[in-house]
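note to self — DONT lose this again. spent like an hour looking for the file last time. sequence + predicted structure for the chain T wanted, 209 res
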Amino acid sequence: MSITFTRRHQRDDLLVYDFNIERDPFVVTVTASPSVVHRWVTSIVQLYKHIINDGIAVVGLGVQFSASPNTRYTVDTMQLCIGEQCLIFQLSRAPNAPRVLRDFLQNKGCTFVGFWNCLDRRMLGLSRHRLRMRRNPVDVRSILGNKVGNASMESIVERSLGYFGISMSWNVIMSNWNGSTLTDDQVVQASVEPRCAFLIGAFYGAWLR
């Protein structure tokens, strides 16, 4: 599996990466800035307004969370992916969540898709910014049905997309996602998961679920 990425742009309030998975290019924006998120979501809604209006927009969704000795699990990042654009929003570092993001999560024209995501809606609702989703996100496994059973994400991606060697590191999953700067391994993992969910959801018509 060939996953390559380069840092295209850096400012105090964001990092932008160019990613490529097996000749599939996409752009990842990492930020804790509500204004950056506002611009990202606004541009996405404008760019994909036709499929959103038609009710067939698919958005890959992922969340990363961690636990401290004094608190329950808290959402640290939320990842969104549609078309060739992905966003990693560092929720636990953000002062607020913009209204446009809240509206996007409630948009009837968008179907959110992820892996093993039965708790994502609840966790986002319990996050410090109380993000509400209109409905539970669709689990990729429910789209593929009996084809995958209890297969791992790696196996699902291999069968559905032909991407061999995608792996989710448990050490990265259990790492600290509340840092001011995410590590390269964290950025890769937080990008690949919603990207693959988006590709599978779009190909198999997740909006029909």
